[in-house]
UniProtKB/TrEMBL annotation:
Pfam family, one: DcpS_C
Keywords: Hydrolase, Nucleotide-binding
Cross-referenced SUPFAM superfamilies: HIT-like (SSF54197)
Gene name of this polypeptide: HINT3
Protein's name in the database: Adenosine 5'-monophosphoramidase HINT3
PANTHER family: ADENOSINE 5'-MONOPHOSPHORAMIDASE HINT3, APRATAXIN-RELATED
Assigned protein family: Belongs to the HINT family.
Catalytic activity line of the entry: adenosine 5'-phosphoramidate + H2O = NH4(+) + AMP
Keyword Iron tagged: no
Span of the annotated motif Histidine triad motif: 153-157
Bias (Low complexity): 1-19
Disordered: region residues: 1-35
Sequence ranges assigned to domain HIT in this UniProt record: 45-170
Length: 183
């Protein structure tokens, strides 16, 4: 099942249809933790990976215990990692582009989510450095914009070197396209 992200990556752009069934993000306007406790969806592959229930996917060291980091099963670049919150958290659809600049998130309901997105970027940089990739100008990081996302569990893609993305990856992870919001 860890292959779902891969299956999505094979189709451009991630149009592999809806991922595991779960409430639409719209049902949770603040994009929060759904308030239904647990924050775990057994049908969601990223939830299972985060809980080490997917033996095929090894978790990489991560400095935050509420986030996990692992390699994309179908890398689009020599380095391709995913950073994912342990708690099942919907995708970034509830965040608008104008919310992306950090300061503007202050006082907003999505502040918490935004903070975790910032942390995710931090983790992404750290994992690159740990894997001996230090040119942070040659990195592509971003969130997929639904519905071009087979997994509706918030995840940050970290790809490097950006200059070595293949044709398909350049499409799937295109800078500030409407399906891929880069940071
Ligand atoms: Zn999940
Ligand atoms: Zn994605």
């Amino acid at each position: 099942m860890a292959g779902e992200e891969a299956a999505a990556a094979a189709a451009a752009p991630e149009a592999a249809g809806p991922g595991p069934a779960q409430p639409p993000a719209e049902a949770r306007p603040d994009g929060g933790e759904a308030g239904n406790g647990g924050g775990y969806d057994g049908k969601c592959v990223f939830c299972r990976i985060a809980r080490r229930e997917e033996p095929g996917t090894a978790l990489l060291p991560c400095e935050y215990e509420d986030l996990v980091c692992f390699r994309d099963i179908r890398p689009g670049a020599p380095h391709h990692y995913l950073v994912v919150p342990v708690e099942h958290m919907g995708n970034c659809k509830t965040l608008k582009k104008e919310h992306i600049p950090v300061g503007k998130a202050e006082g907003r309901k999505m502040k918490e989510k935004w903070c975790s997105m910032k942390k995710m970027v931090e983790v992404g940089k750290t994992v690159l450095q740990r894997n001996n990739f230090s040119d942070l100008n040659d990195v592509r990081m971003g969130f997929h914009w639904p519905p071009f996302c087979s997994i509706s569990h918030l995840h940050l893609h970290v790809l490097a070197p950006a200059s070595q993305l293949g044709f398909l990856s350049r499409l799937i992870y295109r800078i500030n396209s409407y399906w891929f919001i880069t940071l």
